[in-house]
Specification:
The protein is an alpha/beta fold and 196 residues long. It contains 6 helices and 7 strands, in the order E-H-E-H-E-H-E-H-E-H-E-E-H. The chain has one domain: 3-Layer(aba) Sandwich (Rossmann fold), CATH 3.40.50. It has a 7-stranded mixed sheet, with helices on both faces. Bound molecules: 5-O-phosphono-beta-D-ribofuranosylamine.
Length: 196
Amino acid sequence: MRNNKIAIFASGTGSNYDAIIAAIQAGELDCEVALLVSDKPAAKVIEKAKQNQTPTFVFDPRQYPDKAAFEQEIVEQLQVNNIEWIVLAGYMRLVGPTLLHEYEGRILNIHPSLLPAFPGLDAIGQAARAGVKITGVTIHYVDEGMDTGTIIAQEALPVTNEMTEVDLQKQIQRIEHKLYPQTIQQVILHTNRKGN
Ligand code: GRF
């Protein structure tokens, strides 16, 4: 039986972290954020985690010889904290084989475009510059590629001529904050039902 403990990996402002915590508090998401992992010691999300009493593991990748070394330490932290699922929310790194092997099929990511369009950095800017009339948000399983894993959920957003990039960003975030908690809940329920 799974315990539904998740670790959020984040290195930004943490608005998705906030949305997940709010959904748990509202009884809409049946899991516990038992660890926040961040590779940016100055990230705002770390303050938020401390205020919420979420345990944190913050590391500086430059202090390790390579990705395998810091991922091995992350795996140890995840195991100590009994983590079942990894939820990436603004962790701006490719996940390597060490983590992928330990958490195969149990790592989710959110990306601010309709994948496979606009993978990688600055997806909202990429979409704005391309002049697309529809963009959106994707939630997918993580594999070794850049935003290439199996898609779980998507929500589209029409782009009007009047919208600035800032408007676009706000509307994308609004979708993210609703879609991510809902999708995490669905994935966890579905996996528990299968008895995995
Ligand atoms: C989100 O836009 C997410 O799609 C991307 O990184 C951003 C994180 O934002 N992967 P926040 O730190 O949760 O506000």
